[in-house]
Amino acid sequence: MFNVEQKRIQKLRLGWFDHTQEKTRNVAKTCRYYGISRQTYYKWLGRYGSLGKSGLVNQSKRPLR
Q1: How crowded is residue 27: how many other Cβ atoms within 10 Å of its Cβ?
Q2: What is the pTM assigned to this prediction?
Q3: Residue with the larger pLDDT of the pair 18 and 1
Q4: Which of 7, 19, 23, 32 lies at a 20 to 30 A Cα distance from 65?
């Protein structure tokens, strides 16, 4: 279903959430560690919450029509 690159990205993004819960318990520190913005972190956390693991892969930006 997913190619290798998508699985790698999915695993990386899951790592953000694991790092926050297991190591820092602080989103700002996790974001600094991984070099991402808090806005990006929360965007992917929302997708993970609503769609599960499948929500962590990049989605097409192509218009629907």
Answers
A1: 16
A2: 0.85
A3: 18
A4: 7
What residue type is assigned to position 36 of the chain? I
Burial readout 28-56 (b: 16 or more C-beta within 10 A, e: otherwise): eebbeeeebeeeebeebbebbeeeeeebb
User: In the block, which residue shows the tokens 């819960």?
Assistant: 21
Q: For residue 31, which amino acid is it?
A: C
At 60 the pLDDT is: 84
* 7-46 residue pLDDT tens: 999 999 999 999 999 999 999 999 999 999 999 999 999 9
Q: What are phi and psi of 18, to 5 degrees?
A: -65, -45
With a CB cutoff of 8 Å and minimum separation 6, the contacts of 40 are 31
DSSP state of 20: I
